[in-house]
């Protein structure tokens, strides 16, 4: 995980002054009522590689 952050994500966000993440709050977890959120990295790489199995899952 750390290798991916420094080797792939670091160069991708090198010119960006901030705002690397999008955080969407999605309510509270049943049971212990802990707050939950979706965390998304911005600036996705151009033309991502699609695997044949992923296409069927998205449909």
TrEMBL record:
Listed Pfam families: Ribosomal_L17
CC terms in the record's Gene Ontology section: cytosolic large ribosomal subunit
Any GO BP: translation
InterPro entries in UniProt: Ribosomal_bL17 (IPR000456), Ribosomal_bL17_sf (IPR036373)
One example GO MF annotation: structural constituent of ribosome
Keyword annotations from UniProtKB, A to Z: Ribonucleoprotein, Ribosomal protein
Positions in coiled-coil regions: none
Family: Belongs to the bacterial ribosomal protein bL17 family.
PANTHER family per the UniProt record, alphabetical: LARGE RIBOSOMAL SUBUNIT PROTEIN BL17M, RIBOSOMAL PROTEIN L17
Record's protein name: 50S ribosomal protein L17
Organism of provenance: bioreactor metagenome
């Amino acid at each position: 995980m750390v290798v991916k952050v420094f080797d792939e994500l670091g160069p991708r966000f090198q010119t960006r002054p901030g705002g690397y993440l999008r955080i969407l709050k999605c309510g509270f977890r049943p049971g212990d009522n802990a707050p939950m959120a979706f965390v998304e990295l911005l600036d996705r790489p151009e033309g991502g590689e699609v695997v044949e199995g992923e296409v069927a899952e998205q449909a």
